[in-house]
Write a structure and sequence with these properties.
The protein is built from 2 helices and 9 strands. The protein has 147 residues and is mainly β.
Length: 147
């Protein structure tokens, strides 16, 4: 699989979708997203090319008042201006995890989905499974074929 690296243009795209400017730090980009109307705030940190165990990869961290969420080895992202969200994807051996960060300071994570769920027949799935498949299906093009 081709390695993914965040470019300066990727950071600009994410900034535009989320509606906030990043703070450039030594080893990451930090986006602080506030939604005063719903009393929500989160911080998104993108660590491009950081050492994780014995490998170099991308790390996505989200901090909220009540949680800390990480996606190790992010392999791509899908920005959606119309939905006001960015989906960060990680794939490993046919299993997909996705971290969704919203302009309104919301965040969701779907972890370790079987890749086949993304293109499966959603009408045949339990609602709990269908929701994750639909949420991450827009990123299916980022995942290499298992052939």
């Amino acid at each position: 699989m081709k390695e993914f690296h965040f470019s300066a243009n990727d950071i600009k795209t994410i900034s535009k979708v989320l509606g906030v400017e990043p703070i450039k730090r030594v080893d990451n980009y930090r986006f602080v997203i506030e939604n005063a109307q719903e009393n929500r705030k989160l911080s998104l940190e993108i660590y491009p090319d950081i050492q994780i165990a014995n490998e170099t990869g991308n790390l996505i961290s989200v901090y909220t008042m009540n949680s800390h969420i990480q996606l190790h080895f992010c392999t791509g992202f899908v920005p959606s201006e119309s939905l006001g969200e960015v989906i960060f994807i990680g794939e490993n051996q046919g299993h997909v995890s996705g971290l969704i960060v919203e302009r309104g300071a919301g965040c969701s994570i779907y972890a370790n989905l079987d890749r086949s769920i993304l293109s499966g027949d959603f009408t045949q799935m339990a609602p709990e499974v269908m929701m994750s498949g639909i949420a991450l299906s827009v990123a299916e093009h980022l995942i290499p074929d298992s052939d």
